[in-house]
Design goal:
The chain is α+β, with helices and mostly antiparallel strands. The protein is built from 15 helices and 20 strands. The longest helix is centred in the N-terminal third of the chain and has 14 residues. Bound molecules: flavin-adenine dinucleotide. Flavin-adenine dinucleotide (FAD) binds next to strand 4, helix 4 and strand 11.
Length: 474
């Protein structure tokens, strides 16, 4: 194969896969088994594990109620610690319980749509990939989405999951109302007008208040988007970052550690002719890792050699994807990784990213996974990472078959210096004391939690540490 063709294929594959957080069906990295993952023994209850295969449990009971009455019964009578589960796409230990797991998978779909207000009431168990087409059928679309669509709406909202774009808040901010079934089995309808305190707590609850059964979304008329991805010099992008982020409906980039390169993704309304799909040979993110392993350690020249390999990708034409918004905003992610993400104040983003990249270089951290950089609008949701503050989110990843801890520990020190707030669903080491300092409405949330679940039946070990609750549920 000609070198150019190989380069073009690598480029196209990286772009198509959103930086190679990649399709890697022939070589999925599950990594060494985690000590948290229970083994399956025939005859015993089926263990649960998350997407990233770093969290697991062996619940004595799993429930998937078909309606709110059955959900209320289940919560009233559930054994042990009760944890709601969506699609298991959180990296943190939000879900594990050896008591009861509750899935809303059978409560899925659009309940009703209001064509004048462009609102829709939706079951919380609806997966985002089902929601896009279902809303399109009633002429609506969510204004923004995260970069994948595997999550359940209830799971995504519970962690303030977000996409990118300075004019768009997280999914939690798009809620107009919701129904919450408490651990006592009560059904509470809430909105800014009705039970407003519970509403503000339940819009991003970490599943600690009960189970959200349905929600009303503020949508917009369905629309098309075109995404253009190109390789650029990172410092050029950072130099004009304010202009870039305002110029496009959605804007983000991925910075390649040990290089000065960035993959820039700009998305705007309208349709354009998409770039023809290139058949992908092999697994580009592993190809990049192999390249780094071969040349990265070469004395004095290693980083330069690797940088030239990555920069070479910049010579090719931008890649264009176009279609209905829900298809363009979301991507395929199959290769396993572990992730940490912090939201820093919007204007601190460039300085924080530069310090992250400098630290990787200075400490010679052997990481090649590109670093994702996005913007999210402020909101008033009590535990949202964007509470009262426009945010810049910076996400770091490591392959699931590599040790991530020393890398993540080092980066977390930088994030904390910039008053970063950790994504609730992504790895972090903060506890109630440090988190309380980051959230002005922290105490208000704790009061609502205590009033709805005084016995702590919804709290597993992770949530007890997050909320500073020492006693266990009986
Ligand atoms: C490949 C990948 C890509 C990702 N991309 C993004 C991204 O672009 N942007 C972003 O912000 N995040 C992203 N994430 C993180 C992810 O969106 C969040 O962790 C999200 O919470 C996962 O949703 P889930 O349905 O898998 O929920 P789970 O991980 O199963 O659960 C998450 C939380 O929701 C609670 N919960 C679930 N259902 C309910 C309910 N009905 N009522 C109350 N609580 C409930 C659970 O108890 C838990 O606390 C990504 C994760 C992965 C693995």
């Amino acid at each position: 194969m000609r070198a150019t063709t190989r380069r073009e294929l690598l480029h196209a594959a990286l772009v198509a896969a959103g930086t190679g957080l990649l399709p890697a069906c022939h070589r999925t990295s599950l990594g060494p088994p985690s000590e948290r993952l229970p083994a399956y023994h025939p005859g015993e209850a089926l263990p649960w594990r998350n997407w990233a295969a770093n969290q697991g449990c062996r619940p004595v009971m799993r429930g998937a109620p078909e309606n709110e009455a059955a959900l209320a019964d289940l919560l009233r009578t559930a054994q042990g610690v009760i944890r709601p589960v969506g699609a298991g796409h959180s990296f943190t230990a939000l879900v594990p319980s050896d008591g009861t797991l509750v899935a809303c998978d059978l409560m899925s779909g659009v309940l009703s749509a209001d064509p004048d207000r462009l609102q829709a009431e939706v079951w919380a168990g609806t997966r985002l990939h089902q929601l896009g087409p279902a809303l399109q059928a009633v002429g609506q679309a969510m204004p923004n989405l995260p970069d994948i669509a595997y999550q359940a709406l209830g799971g995504a909202v519970a962690t303030s999951t977000h996409g990118t774009g300075p004019s768009f808040g997280s999914l939690s901010s798009m809620l107009q109302g919701l129904a919450l079934v408490t651990p006592a089995g009560d059904l509470i309808e809430c909105s800014l007008e009705q039970n407003p305190e519970i509403f503000q707590a339940a819009r991003c609850s970490l599943g600690a208040l009960g189970v959200v059964s349905r929600m009303t979304l503020q949508n917009q008329r369905s629309f098309d988007l075109t995404e253009t991805t190109s390789f650029e010099i990172l410092e050029d992008v950072l130099d004009e970052i304010e202009k870039r982020r305002e110029q496009h409906r959605h804007f983000e980039f991925y910075a390649f550690p040990h290089t000065g390169a960035a993959m820039v993704v700009a998305t705007d309304e309208g349709r354009r002719e998409p770039t023809p799909e290139v058949p992908v040979e092999g697994d580009p993110i592993h190809a990049l890792r192999d390249a780094y392993r071969k040349v990265g350690g070469v004395p004095l020249l290693g980083s330069r050699l690797y940088e030239s390999i990555v920069s070479d990708l910049g010579g090719t034409e931008p890649i264009v994807r176009s279609g209905p918004s829900f298809q363009v905003l979301t991507h395929v992610r199959i290769a396993r990784f572990r992730e940490m993400e912090y939201t820093v104040p919007s204007d601190a983003g460039p300085a924080c990213l530069r310090e992250i990249l400098d630290t990787i270089r200075r400490e010679r951290i052997p990481v090649i996974f590109p670093i994702e950089y996005r913007y999210v609008q402020r909101d008033d949701v009590w535990l949202s990472m964007f509470h009262d503050r426009d945010g810049c989110t910076i996400s770091i990843h490591q392959f699931a078959d590599e040790e991530y801890r020393p890398y993540f520990d080092s980066m977390e020190r930088v994030f904390r210096k910039y008053e970063g707030r950790p994504h609730w669903g992504k790895l972090h080491t903060q506890d109630s004391q440090s988190l309380a300092r980051l959230y002005p409405r922290w105490k208000d949330f704790l009061e609502v939690r205590e009033s709805l679940d005084p016995a702590g039946r919804m709290l597993n070990e992770h949530l007890r540490s997050v909320f500073g609750v020492t006693r266990s549920a009986s």
